[in-house]
């Protein structure tokens, strides 16, 4: 479970990115975190994994407050898949990128191998094991970045824009991959059709505050609410409206 209490954060230049956020994320939930550009989605993620230091208020993960001295535990529990896989993959072989986290945990090489193989198998990418990450396609890199987080066996995964810049087939593949993962997922996305497909709850951020929080249907079928925070109905719903007109 993640609990945000009166969480606020301003960047060093004084820009207030997160304002008085109160939220509770329960185990096993699949949450879409949506909002216009600059709404604060990535900033919120950076606070959860301690890339940015909390300004005011608190975040607790399974009762452990996020702070400098707990970051190792927090990051063992919460994995983050960055928007740009090139920020996550830096080894010369896929295997080593996926093994990086478990090796860092000082697991034996046998345990590391088991973790890597499990992650690659779950995602159906065992055939990429010996490839060079920087020579893979954008979609393949995205899945490898997910594998590099899965091998840490986190209970919670944060995905920052997992379907951006992907062609339809790669997007579908990432969506199916996310749909299969059973841990708690928070997915920051502009892809509301994906949210409709694989999430059960939607949190809308607007100018750093929680604007709405509810079931996928409550939020994503409410055109007025979406327009008020610079979003639109998912494309499939827009098409339905045209068909019914
Ligand atoms: N390093 C920084 N210094 C100052 N302000 C920043 C910094 N990074 C982000 N911001 C500001 O914080 C606000 C929230 O940005 P954030 O990146 O969290 O938005 P986002 O919801 O992830 O947007 P997007 O959908 O474009 O990814 C924006 O107004 C942005 O300009
Ligand atoms: Mg962002």
Describe this structure in words.
With 245 residues, the protein is an alpha/beta fold. It has ten helices and ten strands. The chain has one domain (2-244): Rossmann fold (3-Layer(aba) Sandwich). The protein has a six-stranded mixed beta sheet, sandwiched between helices. Strands 2-1-4-5 form a four-stranded antiparallel beta sheet, covered by helices on one side. β7 (156-160), α6 (168-180) and β8 form a beta-alpha-beta unit. Bound molecules: adenosine-5'-triphosphate (ATP) and magnesium ion. Adenosine-5'-triphosphate is lined by residues 11, 13, 15, 17, 35, 37-43.
Write the layout of secondary structure elements.
Elements: E1 2-10, E2 16-25, E3 30-34, H1 41-48, E4 56-61, E5 64-65, H2 71-77, E6 78-81, H3 94-104, H4 109-122, H5 138-150, E7 156-160, H6 168-180, E8 184-188, H7 192-198, E9 201-206, E10 209-215, H8 216-220, H9 223-228, H10 235-244
Parallel strand pairs: 3-8, 3-9, 6-7, 7-8
Antiparallel strand pairs: 1-2, 1-4, 4-5, 9-10
Bound molecules: adenosine-5'-triphosphate (ATP) and magnesium ion.
The site of magnesium ion has 4 residues, from helix 1.
